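Notebook entry, structure prediction.
Reason for the run: the old model in the group folder had no record of what sequence produced it. Starting over properly, with the input documented here first.
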Amino acid sequence: MATSGKVIKCRAAVAWAVGKPLSVEEVEVAPPKAGEVRIKIVATGICRTDDHVLEGCFPNVDFPVIPGHEGAGIVESVGEGVTTVKPGDKVIPIPLPHCGECSFCLNPESNYCLKSHFSESQNLLPDKTSRFTCKGKQIHHFLWVSTFAEYTVIPEYTVAKIDAAAPLDKVCLLGCGFSTGYGAAINTAKVKPGSTCAVFGLGGVGLSVVMGCKAAGASRIIAVDINKDKFAKAKELGATDCINPRDFKKPIQEVLTEMTGHGVDYSFEVIGQADTMIAALASCNMSTGICVMIGEPASGSVIPIDPVLLLCGRTWKGTAFLGWKMQDSIPKLVSSYLEKKFNSDLLITHTLPIAKVNEGFELLRAGKSIRSVLLF
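New structure, fully documented this time:
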């Protein structure tokens, strides 16, 4: 390509400081080094995690930074030694690396990687330098993907090649939100046919959990949220009951236990608050119930729980991005999308140009959107 090996000037939404709106700026994106890929991002979703970054409550983030981690695009150029993708390939950047060498990557039962941001900061690329500059200043990466930039440079082991027929403005959701929720039900919880489920929080990820529970054959899916405007969409996607904790005088875990007899078989917390995490755990049955924690609590949060909740056999699990190895599973999920095995398009409520990125975040904070997709 004509741009290969050259610095590209393009637009990006930059977060200059905690608590400040994003600023759409012209940035310079350096060419990829050995083992790196430069991608032209076509579309990117706005995820609650990006809002956590702006609020300053996501761990291991340095400012100024280009957020975004739910994108899809086309490979523009590759660095020396890259073999898995080539210019022109459609790809989804993956926020959970797959280096293929660490003990977790080599374990078939793990989808974690020791190069993840929980173990190793991903504010700079692996060689500890940035490919972004703006107004003469170095700009940090976010989770190595930074999809709020029209062009981004990422390590080869954080990119998944997908089917050339995939519509990028739709499958970008598979980079995080949909995959995380759907995979939490299918892979992490392993929801069984005929079972009962409760889903706390009906944003894009929570509604994806509902879709996963339905696909797994759950007989009853109880959706829980304080925003009743989300209930119609939840029922459309498979929820059998929708309840608002504010409609009851008793704790919501007691309501769910009464509704189901002994508590649900599976509960999912997709909010990230201590009180709802405890409620979700207590709402699944005390012997074989499985509670999956998906929501991200603020960095440094502590959750006080009564150990009796776990003594009789309840399981409390965490999950990160699908519960599958992302580099292998994302292309398969895209194929399933193209085969119409699920309709993640139903989660997209707004499509906006990158210039309206702050409007997208306002819709999210006001509870007026499920997923907004930004286009370059």
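Summary: The chain has a mean pLDDT of 94.
The old model has been moved to the deprecated folder.
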